Amino acid sequence: MFQATFAGVKNLLIGMGVTFRNMLTKPVTIQYPEVKRVMPARYRGRHFLNRDEEGLERCVGCSLCSINCPVGCIHVVSAENDPDNPVSKGERYAEVYEINLLRCIYCGYCEEACPVDAVVLREHYELADYDRENYIMEKQDLLVYPEPNEFRVNILGNTERVNK
Ligand code: SF4
Ligand code: SF4
């Protein structure tokens, strides 16, 4: 009887200790969407296509990302570059580049496979939409870093924080 009472009081105090400890810690809740969570730099969110230092598209239309995609959600059609007005530094560029974000599993294999660091998955996680058509990302969408986000891909292809 005494032992059971002692054990009960002990467990009660342990439980109260956990409550008290958490009362003093900073809450983890954030007021989304007014406050946005800063994702780790290596978080694999929405895809983007990088440009090089001269503003040319990095993508050379080699289709390695498409071949390595386990769910086949990247569609690339390449074309020859016009030497007088090149789109990329390579012989070819991606005339069509599309990613179906509804099929994507965000594994990052496309990013790993790309030999020129053209396609990247960045911190943007606000992907909800009412229209399925909006999940087919075309090249012009992928070359622009969308707002709102605290990060952007700079001209060197690195992630940097946008100064507010
Ligand atoms: S993240 Fe994975 S599933 Fe998505 S496009 Fe890249 S390779 Fe395909
Ligand atoms: S994104 Fe990279 S891997 Fe994909 S087609 Fe362009 S250059 Fe090739």
Please give the structural blueprint.
Elements: H1 2-24, E1 47-49, H2 64-68, E2 74-80, E3 92-100, H3 109-113, E4 119-121, E5 136-137, H4 139-142, E6 151-153, E7 159-161
Antiparallel strand pairs: 1-4, 2-3, 3-5, 6-7
Textual characterization of the structure:
The protein is α+β, with helices and mostly antiparallel strands and 164 residues long. The protein has a single domain, classed as Alpha-Beta Plaits (2-Layer Sandwich), CATH 3.30.70. The strands form three sheets. It has a three-stranded antiparallel β-sheet. Strands 1-4 form a two-stranded antiparallel ribbon. A two-stranded antiparallel ribbon has the order 6-7. Bound molecules: iron/sulfur cluster (2 copies). One iron/sulfur cluster (SF4) binds next to α3. InterPro entries: 4Fe4S_Fe-S-bd, 4Fe4S_Fe_S_CS, NADH_quinone_OxRdtase_chainI. Belongs to the complex I 23 kDa subunit family.
